[in-house]
Amino acid sequence: MRCIGIDYGERRVGLSYGDEIGVATPVDAAVQDSESERIDHLVKLAQDRRATDLVFGYPYNMDGSVGFKAKEVDVFIEKVLIKIALPVHRIDERLTSHVASEGFSKKRDDTLRRSGKIDSAAAALILQDFLDQRVILPDFDPYEEEER
């Protein structure tokens, strides 16, 4: 499994990559001027990394309901799927951008924000949640060795 994590934003799309190893890594965000260019950037990344799955952060409301922002993500997903047909997974992204920004300087840095690094860090958190949910550990009995 090779996954692209996606944190959708109207101006920037945070991106990350993860595979069978189970570690999500931020990659360059899609920060192009138009949405179609940002989609093309995402599609190229998915093709270059031979992605098998797309993992989108899904912005549920704090009460768990689907609101306006989640519907925006659904529209974006449909536009992406026109260009590349891969399985899509939606992962609860509540507060990931806030958590992701904690690793950066607290002072306002517009250059940092425009770079998409915070968005890609959020995408990595989203993807890591997905990868962690998929980990299946083999049955292990620590006492089995002693019995032999």
Number of strands: 5
- CATH architectural label: 2-Layer Sandwich
Structural class: alpha/beta
The largest β sheet comes out as: 5 strands, mixed
Q: So what's the overall shape?
A: globular
Q: If you average the pLDDT, what whole number results?
A: 84
- State the name of the first-level CATH class: Alpha Beta
SSE run: EEEHEHEHHHH
Alpha plus pi helix count: 6
The whole-angstrom Rg is 17 Å
Share of helical residues? 40-55%
Q: Note the beta-strand portion.
A: 15-25%
The CATH homologous superfamily is termed YqgF/RNase H-like domain
Return the domain count: 1
Give the terminus-to-terminus CA distance: 36 Å
CATH topology: Nucleotidyltransferase, domain 5
Main sheet: strand order: 3-2-1-4-5
Low-confidence stretches: none
What does this structure look like?
This protein has a five-stranded mixed sheet, sandwiched between helices. It has six helices and five strands. The N and C termini lie far apart (36 Å). The protein is globular, with a radius of gyration of 17 Å. By secondary structure, the chain is of the alpha/beta class. The chain has one domain: YqgF/RNase H-like domain (Nucleotidyltransferase, domain 5).
